[in-house]
Amino acid sequence: MHQQDWMNLPLVAEIDNALSSLVAPRPCSRLLAMVPQTFQTISKRYHVAGPAALACVEAGLWLLADDLDTCHKLCQDIATPLGSAWHAIMHRREGDFSNSLYWWGRAGSIRWLDPRDGADIAERIGPMAGTGELWRQVSLKLVSPYDPAMFTRIVEAFTRAKLTESENVLVRIGRLEWLALFAASMAAIG
Questions:
Q1: Do the beta carbons of residue 145 and residue 112 sit within 8 Å?
Q2: How far, in Å, CA of 92 to CA of 143, rounded?
């Protein structure tokens, strides 16, 4: 399965409709129903992949459908940088920022590349953010290479300050982060 193939899987193609809140998401029944078939399609193609690599892909799919409990059950037992990264995102989405930062520390160095063109995802954030002093400050903190721990700190600050007008941009950054980590997980299995 080539990169473009997995990006067109029905569940992955739904990314613009998924991950619709920064924290405390509600699982989407329509997306939840798509996870088993999507994972089965991937695992059939990569049946010789290591169990940790496949578990990262599965954890990512459950996270995309906002099932944090299932994602957590999978990623807490994956002792790899990618497993730690999925674990970190899951805790950030549940609002447990200190736990998320702990797992980012365990994730180590991951290349955060947009699978559509190979650019560091930090390069996408500036144009997403728009104008204004607040976003200028955020964009300066999210310079290349992308730093997911810094993004976690920004999400925590915005969440605590209840700055809902910024949530849409932060959600879009989170989707881009998911896509980059899923691409890295797919590369690990194939």
A1: yes
A2: 20
CA distances from 12 to 16, 103, 176 (A): 9, 24, 12
Q: Name the residue among 93, 104, 158 with its Cα closest to residue 129.
A: 158
Q: CA dist 177 to 6, 41, 121, 181, Å?
A: 16, 23, 7, 6
Q: Which amino acid is at 64?
A: L
The predicted-structure confidence for 5-41, as pLDDT tens digits, reads as follows 888 899 999 999 899 888 988 899 999 999 999 999 9
Q: Which of 110, 121, 113, 69 is nearest to 90 (CA)?
A: 69
pTM equals: 0.92
- Domain residue spans of the chain: 3-189
Longest dimension (CA), the chain: 50
**AA identity, residue 165:** E
Which residue numbers in the chain have pLDDT < 50?
Answer: none
Cα–Cα distance, 119 to 113 (Å, whole number):
5
CA torsion 11→76→94→69, rounded to 10°?
60
